[in-house]
Model the fold of this input.
Amino acid sequence: MAALVPVATSRGGEIAYPGDPMCLYAALTLTIRRSVTRLHAGLPDAPGLDDVCPDWGDYPTAEYRRAAGAPRTTAIADNPTTDGHVFDPRIWDDLARDRYVAELRALRPKVVLLSAVSAAHRYALEMAELAKTHAPGCVVVIGGRHADETVRYQQATGTVDLSWCSTVEVVHDGRGPRAVDFVVAGDGAPLLDLLLQAVSLVAEPGFGPTPVEDVLDALTLLGRAHEDLTGSGSVVGLTPDEAVVVPVRGKRLTSTELPSPYEAFSIRSRFGVFTLANSSALGSRTAHMMTLDACPFKCTFCSESIQVSNRPTRFAVSETEHAARRIRQLIDWGAEASFFDDPVFWGGNWKAITDFCHDLMRQCEDLPGDVPFEWGAQLTVDVVLNRAKTDEVHAALELMRRSGCTYVYIGIESMAQQVMRHVGKNLLRRNPEAWVSKVREALTMIRDHGIRVGSSVLFGLDGEDRDTMEETIEEIGLLIDDELLVMASPNILTYHPGTAITAAHGQDRLDYHSRKDNRPPFTYFEEAYPEVVSKLLTEDDIWFIHETAAKRWGSVRNSAAESVAEASA
Done:
């Protein structure tokens, strides 16, 4: 049984960031493919490592995919598909807790997999404890972005650095329940597949416990036995006495070597900015896609920066055709839109963007005229204003529009020069142009090619004060007045383990484990909790940002209601 751990705790008036379903889907791809392959092939003539596999069911049919709604409504025990084996409540409250417990009691899983971002970690610990209570003997595994951010293997020394807020440290020193058996950090799909192979080798039939020590022994043997070991990262086993780290240093897989995250799952998300196929507030059914795992830039606040994740790009810039084929596959599976969640689309490589657009148009040229499809991506101001490639950028933006791109998302962060000088985002600072004029030029350039632009704004960075808050809110308002922005999303700086600004602000003890219900004004912003937001902001500042932005930006500000609809859909 797998579960996406949510962040939000109420069903109204809260910006509901549901977690990262694509991180979970991607991590499950290889173990599910192994299981489904064995399901169809039957037992081999001779004993082998795959004689026992996790029971993930079978892949959903085309009819199931097209009919799938949101959220999942069928109990896991009653759904024979791989798509049905995920518990995805989107909101963690009494109703979700009761549903989760009912699933545990009905299914009695041997293994419970929990995927959590940092803001969801406190609820992951509670879900782990519930799993141990209502499915006694189960093996609980935690992975996801929080694990990646807090468990870091140092190649040079052969040691692992554990953040104070890591699951391992929280359980070890008693701040959290002793309900977690393994933490997986790194390349989720191959590492999780390897771990579940180890569990399969030692698990006894029935509902008895599977000792962590036995799994660790099997994991070590498997690592030695695999000549073609894949994946890089760490698996940490938590025994009653110690934490045992098993480093995995296999070949890293590219996206062309991994299954699509949607191979086993239906497309359920809806994004209100895409309306060609569905003009309601919920928007079109949207598949999420990535061409890279980490941002090539080094913004001080960002947990997706290459400095934090240390991950290479997954799609090589020469693999645009493969990415286009995957988009076409998603359309066949029911996608009406697709959004590229890369921090920067194709890493800002305009040749790759151009090649992808050509490839996508070729892949979709036989689509019937009554099958609308659109897509969007994220870019940066400096990538758009690449002065050395102005003609190439204009040509690429035009190709983006022709191939179906209707929306680009740009992180503006702040419109105050005294803030932006600290960020590490305004890359061309040697250029005398002011950041405000550069933002306006980039947005105008994209709009002039017929593509709408949305943006995120981040408050609480170095240099922030009440004057810079007012300046940013007003300047964003002017962009809205001039129809350069169709959506503006205000955010509060939230400290993530490993980022430069977290270290600079001395925030080495982040409370991502205490069980606390959130409250306004923090609930009006994604991932914002009182203990982990910028120390430069008071609660009065956060109220000011919320109220002033809502008044000045009007309906262009993403509302709590819209965010909940998007997340729950």
Summary: The longest strand covers residues 405-413. The CA atoms of residues 246 and 422 lie 38 Å apart. The chain is about 35% helix and 15% strand.
